[in-house]
Design a protein that fits this description.
By secondary structure, the protein is an alpha+beta fold. Among the domains are: 262 residues, 3-Layer(aba) Sandwich (Alkaline Phosphatase, subunit A); 173 residues, Jelly Rolls (Sandwich), CATH 2.60.120.560. Helix 2 crosses helix 8, helix 6 packs parallel to helix 8 and helix 7 packs across helix 8. The strands form 6 sheets. It has an 8-stranded mixed beta sheet. Strands 19, 20, 22, 27, 28, 29, 31 and 32 form an 8-stranded antiparallel beta sheet that branches. A 7-stranded antiparallel beta sheet has the order 18-21-30-23-24-25-26, with no helix packed on it. The chain is 23% helix and 25% strand.
Length: 663
């Protein structure tokens, strides 16, 4: 692998030297082997990728609640694709497809990193890539070889350190690292690849400032600026003035399908960032020679249906779903002098198409071996006003489970028809999207011949890209599998029970297969008093398994221990699974308790074993989980451990019984 990487990078360096000598007017071969259009001046590229943005989350795609004048203006300057798709229902695979032009199935990068495993589910998910391999030639590497300056801003989420943007062709990386959501949208951000901002600075505003600085610095050089916003992913945090504005709008129109004030504020800030970048291009005189792309990485997050984060109506479902709400995206391209302002295109397009499109637009060649396996189609013919591409179908492959509702599936869209094949029971669903965009009328029994033809074509495609398939799970347990998906179980029918806890605050408790399941709308604690205080050394062990029905930073579980029995006395050690951290803090999180934490890589819904050691002679508390360890000083007020138990925040989590040793 290393030799391959070195030869590839050497090849790209050679291309870069040739390009610098030849200049911007040289006619090179594009990724599809066609002569690139000669240009007097190299074309700049700005690419906006918005996290979790739903198809109807912007005005030009139908929202009347969110205000997005800048995105709408961009659509008015270029071409808006009505049937644009992400290549996956979750983020990391789509991001990889943009970077490489390859389907996630071909890359074997088919779930968000690091994904989660449902231990008791009917199918066992395949061992899939948890990083974008260096053997792939990224969009940044292809343009860098042509002499482009390359800058990345925002969310990366394509692997651990060593696979970050600075090792994938980007000269500048501001904010891109392993995690898929920010610890906070307000400074301090605690993002290791960007300098901290002044306290209270908003992250999306910071993206705009960093983008403006990149444009200013590289105004005289052809450039690729990739603005991959953390917004509008959770945690849901927005500026107060914007939240207040959208709260008033929601109150004025209570029947609106979209009505989350905080999410509205996040969308608004996203649009402001787009506007600032467009204005900077204009001020620098670069707008006529810069192509601008805008899209999202998966459908809008619904979350709790009773209090949805957003609505993707008229599309069905949302992020983490096989249906249109999980994969259809805003998809806008503005190529000055080529795209007709305000034009629309209804040809189905997908995120793999960006790579060959940008290579053809810029005259970059990439690498021949990589290009042979590129799945995307150049959209240049459509941007010139054409009405068709040579391919006849687009595909999806998701051999995983997701809290948003997806079970392992594959799908094909050919013309107006979309077929979904569900791997758990081999059933298919067929829809006519032109007549039924909401996927309400299933047609497989009405059109069996078409369903069989599309299924056969889907199978053939899977074989051609080497797609990994799930396998029967030897540990399958239907009752436990249903528990994890929140459906009926024996324990739920029996109602609340009373495990051996002396103090219960803010949560409900019931037995489950792990031990106890706790659920809290805010912060909840269940404590039991030890037979005698531990004053020298205490070792506390338990297993924790979060139940993730939505992707939010609050998915967590903690061991709780204390000298007294009040909330302020608590010492809490455990996991923020969504935040990907092992954390120890004193007091309640919502009251601002002091915190010590270390970043980890925890698989969602996997069982995590936690060990907490309290050593009074050294006055240290040590929390260990796997390879991670967090150590902090004991507060002076803690003289003994008298209570142990469980703690959680705004979520539902399973805990084993606690083992305690010490004296």
């Amino acid at each position: 692998m290393v030799e391959h990487d070195l030869s590839r990078r050497g090849f790209l360096r050679g291309l870069s030297q040739v390009a610098l000598i030849a200049g911007g007017g040289a006619a090179l071969m594009d990724a599809l082997g066609q002569p690139a259009t000669a240009q007097a001046k190299p074309l700049n590229v700005v690419f906006f990728l918005i996290d979790d943005l739903g198809w109807t989350d912007v005005g030009c795609y139908g929202s009347t609640y969110y205000e997005t004048p800048n995105v709408d203006r961009l659509a008015g300057m270029g071409m808006r694709f009505t049937d644009g798709y992400a290549s996956c229902t979750v983020c990391s695979p789509t991001r990889a497809s943009v970077m490489t032009g390859k389907y996630p199935a071909r890359l074997h990068l088919t779930d968000w990193i690091s994904g989660h495993v449902r231990r008791w589910a009917k199918l066992k998910v395949p061992e899939w890539n948890k990083q974008l391999e260096h053997r792939e030639v990224t969009l940044a590497e292809a343009l860098k070889a042509k002499g482009y300056a390359t800058g990345f801003i925002g969310k990366w989420h394509l692997g651990p350190e060593g696979y970050w943007p600075d090792s994938q062709g980007f000269d500048k990386n501001i904010g891109g690292y392993s995690r898929g959501q920010p610890p906070s949208y307000f400074a301090p951000y605690r993002i290791p690849t960007m300098a901290e901002g002044p306290k209270g600075e908003y992250l999306t505003d910071r993206h705009a400032a960093d983008a403006e600085n990149f444009l200013e610095t590289n105004r005289d050089t052809p450039f690729l600026l990739y603005v991959s916003m953390y917004a509008v992913h959770t945690p849901l945090q927005a500026k107060k003035e914007l939240t207040d504005h959208y709260k008033a709008k929601a109150e004025a129109d209570p029947e609106s399908a979209q009505g989350s004030p905080v999410y509205g504020g996040m969308v608004h800030s996203m649009d402001d960032c787009v506007g600032r970048v467009l204005k900077k291009l204009e001020r620098l005189g670069l707008q006529e020679n810069t192509a601008v792309f805008f899209t999202g990485d998966n459908g809008g997050l619904i979350g709790n249906p009773k209090r949805p984060v957003t609505s993707n109506r008229p599309l069905r479902a949302g992020k983490g779903s096989a249906y249109e709400g999980g994969v259809r995206e805003p998809f806008i391209i503005c190529w000055p002098g080529v795209t007709r302002p305000g034009s629309t295109c209804s040809v189905p397009v997908i995120s793999t198409d960006f790579y060959p499109t940008i290579l053809e637009m810029t005259g970059a060649t990439g690498e021949a071996a990589h290009n042979q396996a590129v799945d995307g189609a150049s959209l240049v013919p459509l941007l010139h006003g054409g009405d068709a591409l040579t391919r006849d179908a687009v595909y999806w492959h998701y051999p995983h489970y997701h809290p948003g509702g997806a079970t392992p599936y594959g799908a094909i869209r050919k013309g107006d028809h979309k077929l979904i094949e569900f791997f758990e029971d081999d059933r298919v669903e067929l829809y006519n999207l032109r007549e039924d965009i909401g996927e309400t009328r299933e047609l497989s029994t009405t059109l069996p011949a078409l369903a069989d033809t599309l299924r056969a074509q889907l199978h053939s495609w899977r074989a051609s890209v080497g797609a990994q398939m799930p396998t029967p799970n030897p540990d399958h347990d239907p009752d436990r599998a249903n528990q994890r998906r929140g459906r009926s179980s024996k324990n739920r029918k029996n109602g609340p029970a009373h495990p051996p806890f002396d103090i219960v605050r803010g949560c409900t408790i019931k037995p489950d297969g792990t031990g106890f399941e706790l659920e809290a709308k805010a912060e909840g604690t269940a404590l039991r008093k030890l037979p005698k205080p531990l004053r020298k050394r205490a070792v506390i062990r338990a297993k924790i398994q979060t139940s993730l029905r939505r992707e939010e930073g609050w998915q967590n579980g903690f061991l709780a221990l204390s000298d007294g029995a009040k909330d302020a006395d608590l010492l809490l050690a455990g996991f923020y699974i969504g935040r990907q951290s092992l954390t120890v803090f004193k007091g309640l999180s919502d009251s601002g308790g002091s915190r010590t934490e270390k970043q980890g890589d925890y698989a969602r819904e996997a069982i995590q074993e936690l060990v907490v050691v309290v050593d009074f002679p050294t006055r240290k508390l040590t929390a260990t989980a796997g390879k991670l360890k967090v150590v902090r000083d004991l507060p002076k007020s803690v003289k003994a451990i008298r209570h142990v138990g469980h703690h959680l925040m705004r979520t539902r989590t399973s805990f084993s019984r606690i083992e305690v040793e010490g004296e």
